[in-house]
Design a protein that fits this description.
The protein is mainly alpha-helical and 303 residues long. Helix content is 70%, strand content 1%. The chain has one domain. The chain has eleven helices and two strands. The longest helix is centred in the N-terminal third of the chain and has 50 residues. It is elongated, with a radius of gyration of 26 Å. The N and C termini lie close together (6 Å).
């Protein structure tokens, strides 16, 4: 996620870090070079005049803008749903911690229980990004539980099962009233819904065929546009074509980043920051003072 102060409107015109320009500048140079060559030849290819006008590009451009707008809405909806899920995970984690510390009698195992909640957040982050969480989880879990989690395919689900088992044990030992246990189980169910929601986003991308159609149409449109403009605007063709290409290519590139919100691209969600925030909040509720520091943005990118 991009984290930087809002700049003056004039400086915003030249922003590099935090934009998609680093991803599309090569394509823009190719489009500009092709437009320059077509302008120099006045639209001739090997002596054949390409008789295109701006009219078909106007019609195609409107349709293309609608397609890109729809894909942008679908991509941002996935991004925003993912962010709401992680916000719900923070709320459910705080609620479960508060309930355990307040309702369980003689909560001598409060620290291991809360650390298992923290481990769930970190395990979910690693699962969504396809990385190994055990190096980070082992300091949070006792040895036996750590071995059990290491062999599990779905580590967040296994940790949630452990939390439920712990609550069941406290209820059986009459340290937790059954009605209060039911309320705590709702918090556990909310965490389970978050895990399932995140897995749904990861395993159900925007249909690939739709992305291919939009991607191809954008590039064909940008490569053919100079033929439709050179007869009417002449030497300004490369400038106008490059600006139009920037608009369409930038939207296409941004949509690719937003549709997979759990990745490591600049505009993806900062899962490191969010999971560390959950750890800080819960350990602070335990009364600990030696809390981890949240990572600062690197080149305005927060991971």
């Amino acid at each position: 996620m991009i984290s930087r102060p809002r700049l003056h409107w004039f400086r915003m015109l030249f922003v590099w870090h935090g934009s998609v320009l680093p991803k599309i500048w090569v394509q823009l140079l190719i489009v500009a070079a092709m437009a320059e060559a077509i302008t120099a030849s006045k639209g001739d290819i090997l002596g054949w005049k390409v008789g295109l006008t701006f009219i078909p590009f106007t019609l195609i451009g409107i349709a293309l803008a609608i397609f890109l707008g729809f894909r942008n809405s679908a991509s941002y909806e996935r991004y925003w749903e993912a962010r709401k899920l992680w916000g719900a995970l923070l709320n459910a984690s705080r609620s479960l911690t508060r309930q355990y510390l307040s309702w369980v009698q003689q909560p001598q195992d409060a620290r291991p229980f809360v650390y298992a909640i923290i481990a769930t957040a970190h395990a979910l982050r690693h699962q969504l990004r396809g990385s190994d969480p055990m190096e980070q989880l082992r300091p949070l879990l006792h040895e036996r539980l750590g071995e059990q989690i290491a062999s599990a395919r779905s580590k967040p689900a296994q940790l949630l099962l452990h939390l439920g088992t712990t609550l069941g044990g406290a209820m059986s030992a009459r340290r937790l009233d059954p009605q209060l246990a039911a309320a705590m189980d709702q918090s556990l169910s909310e965490m389970t819904s978050v895990v399932g929601g995140c897995e749904r986003i990861v395993t159900t991308p925007i249909p690939y065929a739709y992305s291919v159609i939009v991607h191809r149409t954008v590039y064909v449109y940008c490569f053919l546009l100079p033929f439709g403009l050179v007869s009417s605007i002449g030497v300004l063709t490369p400038l106008i074509v490059t600006f139009v290409a920037y608009t369409f290519l930038a939207l296409d590139a941004l949509n690719e980043e937003l549709e997979e919100p759990f990745g490591l691209l600049p505009n993806d969600l900062p899962l490191d920051f969010l999971s560390t925030g959950i750890e800080i909040a819960l350990r602070d509720m335990l009364g600990e003072t030696d809390l981890p520091a949240q990572a600062l943005p690197q080149d305005y990118v927060l991971t």
